[in-house]
Automatic annotation (TrEMBL):
Residues 74-187 form the YbhG-like alpha-helical hairpin domain. This is HlyD family efflux transporter periplasmic adaptor subunit. It holds the Pfam family HH_YBHG. It is found in: Cell envelope. It comes from Thermomonas beijingensis.
Length: 319
């Protein structure tokens, strides 16, 4: 009886050896990263954290020198106040003293015009009798006309004051005041950004610059690793792509760690790429793959960058 079972066991063992293992893809473990850029090119005057430290949302990471930015803000706020006062002056219109002065000037030129007209009348009568030169009469006529013009100009100036400020000038003043206030608000926001704070809770991954450095605008001052759990960034070979979909369950194997971690596919890129050398496995002759992200279902304290292997649950075997 025992002799008969030996061939059966051998056949089962042979079939097990011939069956293919579930398809696996390779990649690295990553965390979501947040890069905090330098808002201005200022010197770093304080660093409040260290690399690897866990920080809460809103915690200050480092501080830049505020001297120049604060001075610019003071200047812009003063300009905004000046624009606001100029607008208030336009809305208030002319002072009563200006109107009284314009009326006095009108009375003065009216008196001068009356005297000039009277003088012209006398000289014209004398000129008709050839008692004065014709040139004197012409000069008197011109003086009377000039005096009448000054009266009209003074009257127009008084009318302008009485009508108040034009609506167009008030609109221009309002626009100038709004622009000045907006510039001051932008500078105030820039000043607030000189305190580099954590937008989310996470771990400080990198502080590229040291105390006293002056990073250029846009340079990364701090890099945070955030999120409840890490994710595996893997490369799906082209033959497996049709069977890997977002939301699909997966098993993640971490090098140096026993067992597997449960996860699910967060996304799969639609554009193919050439597989990196470290992710090549099996029959990857074509080296064409699709970048995918597999999020772990449970929080786990693992560093970024370590190699991982991923098996997709439900993927057809033998692909």
């Amino acid at each position: 009886m025992q002799a008969r079972t030996l061939p059966v066991i051998a056949v089962i063992a042979l079939l097990g050896a011939c069956s293919k293992p579930p398809p696996q893809v390779l990649g690295t473990l990553e965390w979501d990263r947040i890069t905090l850029p330098a808002p201005t090119a200022e010197k770093i005057v304080a660093i409040d954290v260290r690399e690897g430290q866990q920080v809460a949302a809103g915690a200050r990471l480092l501080q830049l020198d505020v001297t120049r930015t604060r001075s610019q803000l003071d200047a812009m706020q003063a300009q905004a106040r000046q624009s606001s006062e100029a607008l208030a002056e336009l809305r208030a219109g002319p002072r009563s003293e200006q109107i009284a002065q314009a009326r006095a000037q009108l009375s003065a030129v009216q008196a001068q015009a009356a005297d000039a007209r009277a003088n012209f009348t006398r000289l014209r009568s004398l000129g008709e009798r050839n008692l004065v030169a014709v040139a004197d009469v012409d000069r008197a006529r011109a003086a009377a006309g000039n005096a009448d013009g000054q009266v009209r100009a003074a009257q127009a100036g008084l009318d302008e004051l009485l009508h108040g400020t034009r609506s167009e000038r008030i609109a221009q003043g309002e626009a100038a005041a709004v622009a000045a206030q907006a510039q001051a608000a932008v500078q105030s926001a820039t000043l607030g950004k000189l305190d580099i704070t954590a937008p989310r809770a996470g771990r400080v991954d990198s502080l590229p610059y040291k105390l006293g450095d002056q990073a250029p605008v846009g340079a990364a001052l701090a890099i945070l690793l955030v999120g409840d759990a890490p994710y595996a960034r893997v490369y799906v070979p082209e033959p497996l792509r049709a069977n890997v979909q977002p939301g699909q369950a997966a098993q993640v194997f971490v090098d140096g760690r026993e067992g597997s971690l449960k996860g699910h596919v967060r996304m799969v890129r639609s554009e193919p790429v050439f597989t990196p050398y470290y992710a090549l496995s099996g029959d990857d002759a074509a080296r064409l793959s699709y970048l995918a992200e597999v999020v772990l279902d449970a929080p786990v304290a693992l560093p970024a960058g370590i190699p991982v292997r991923v098996e997709f649950v439900g993927t057809a075997r033998g692909q």
